[in-house]
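Retro notes (design track)

What went well: tokenization of the new backbones is finally stable.
What didn't: we kept losing track of which sequence belonged to which structure.
Fix going forward: every design gets posted as structure first, then sequence, in one message. First example under the new rule, 482 residues:
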């Protein structure tokens, strides 16, 4: 049997981090089993589905590297893989099910259904709707031709139960007392999620349905539908949902949930995949870092935990920092240059590019998010518009400020050669001659050249900035002191 799995987002929102985890697990499972990974669009909710959301989902799937083999925008044997293109097929199945008695036209109104449930609760019987309010079969054709509004419901076998073995949650049993005769076709002829999803799963030959736990209670319906279509139901795996740190379902209240926000914040797709994979699955031996190919090599759906997993953006940032430090310098430059140039509003000149190459290894060690890089290197490529207010107050407004800058200017102006070691030697000598400690002696120089007390390592920064510019900046800061 060839494994065929699908990720089936509804384009009613941006790609959510929780959905990305579902996509990733499907992807890992497909790749680990030489299977096929399909991307489907569950776009039957025409009021809420938009092209913009669809684009966002495709774009971020690609950005994460979760390439699909068949599906939306890629094609395959089954057409567009968009549910909105398949209404004819869903109606055909609904009518086949009516013809063989597995489904029926239902005329019961919402009020009637409510009274039915109320009465069942009072009588202590099952409140699942069982079709008992419907007209006699003999009257149905006439009601339809009279234009009475009817939905199509699936006839859930009663008494009965549906059992299945969920890969993550083991044995599951649903007593049909809990399952309504559910709607498969609405009165306007549009399919419900249950019908569209199951027909697609059957038609596309899906072998494993890996999806969120929120859909667990739909699964008996999908199994009953597949069986009524004379198909073998898929094997199911329901993943626990992601939680915020407070143990509640991850939502906007906890911060960003759209993948685009993480991309814009400077997270790497590799780090996100690594982090999301480990929410509910472990590499073993307390290992925390693995490339996508290592994860494919080890992925085992059977060892996925059913416990809720907490999404912790700080842990993700930490892991991102590990990935950034692990990049080689050239790659780091390649992945951050555009953001540095965007920040400046122009391209770097050849000389500036050499400066960026020189500072990159130092910045790389101190970066958790790619977007932090522009801030750290801006001082090299543009004049300091404004000194950071707090830094100025803390360092420059102190009696040691002018002392340090005067002494630094005097040792640096005669320094040859202009190398990191020579600069360090000269400035350490300056500490001795002035009696200032390293903090009091060096911080004013740092603020003078970078505008703030936080910068990459000082001696290297001075070397990269160059002698002329360093002395000019020290002189300018000195002139602005009281
Ligand atoms: N379209 C559904 C959703 O966005 C998922 C359907 C499924 O996986 O069965 O939640």
């Amino acid at each position: 049997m060839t494994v065929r799995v699908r990720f089936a987002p509804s384009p009613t929102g941006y790609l959510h981090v929780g959905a990305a985890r579902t996509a990733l697990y499907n992807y890992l499972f497909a790749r680990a089993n030489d299977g096929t990974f399909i991307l489907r669009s569950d776009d039957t909710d025409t009021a809420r589905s938009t092209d913009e959301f669809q684009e966002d989902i495709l774009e971020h799937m690609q950005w994460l590297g979760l390439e699909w083999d068949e599906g939306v925008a890629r094609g395959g044997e089954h057409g567009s893989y968009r549910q909105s293109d398949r209404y004819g097929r869903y109606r055909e199945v609904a009518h086949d099910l009516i013809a063989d008695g597995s489904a029926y036209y239902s005329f019961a109104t919402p009020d009637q259904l409510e009274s039915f449930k109320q009465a069942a609760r009072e009588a202590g019987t099952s409140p699942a709707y069982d079709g008992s309010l419907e007209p006699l079969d003999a009257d149905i054709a006439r009601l339809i031709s009279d234009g009475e509004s009817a939905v199509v419901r699936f006839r859930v076998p009663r008494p009965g139960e549906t059992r299945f073995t969920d890969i993550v949650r083991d044995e599951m049993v649903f007593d049909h007392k809990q399952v309504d005769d559910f709607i498969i076709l609405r009165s306007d002829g549009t399919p419900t999620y249950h019908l569209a999803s199951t027909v697609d799963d059957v038609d596309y030959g899906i072998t494993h349905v890996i999806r969120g736990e929120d859909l667990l209670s739909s699964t008996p319906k999908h199994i009953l539908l597949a069986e009524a279509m004379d198909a073998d139901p898929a094997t199911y795996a329901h993943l626990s949902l992601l939680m915020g740190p407070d143990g509640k379902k991850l939502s906007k209240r906890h911060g960003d949930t759209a993948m685009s926000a993480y991309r814009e914040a400077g997270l790497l797709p590799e780090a996100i995949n690594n982090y999301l994979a480990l929410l509910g699955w472990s590499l073993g031996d307390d290992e925390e870092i693995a490339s996508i190919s290592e994860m494919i090599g080890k992925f085992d759906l059977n060892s996925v935990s059913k416990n809720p997993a907490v999404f912790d953006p700080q842990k993700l940032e930490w892991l991102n920092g590990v990935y950034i430090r692990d990049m080689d310098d050239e790659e780091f430059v390649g992945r951050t240059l555009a953001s540095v140039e965007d920040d400046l509003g122009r391209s770097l000149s050849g000389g500036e590019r050499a400066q960026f190459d020189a500072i990159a290894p130092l910045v790389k060690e101190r970066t958790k998010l790619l977007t932090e890089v522009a801030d750290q290197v801006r001082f090299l490529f543009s004049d300091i518009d404004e000194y950071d207010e707090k830094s100025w107050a803390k360092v420059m407004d102190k009696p040691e400020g002018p002392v340090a800058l005067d002494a630094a200017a005097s040792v640096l102006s005669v320094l040859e050669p202009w190398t990191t070691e020579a600069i360090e030697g000269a400035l350490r000598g300056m500490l001795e001659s002035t009696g200032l400690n390293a903090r009091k002696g060096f911080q004013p120089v740092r603020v003078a050249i970078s505008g703030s007390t936080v910068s990459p390592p000082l001696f290297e920064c001075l070397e990269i900035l160059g002698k002329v510019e360093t002395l000019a900046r020290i002189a300018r800061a000195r002139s602005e002191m009281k």
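Added context from the reviewer: The CA atoms of residues 142 and 148 lie 9 Å apart.
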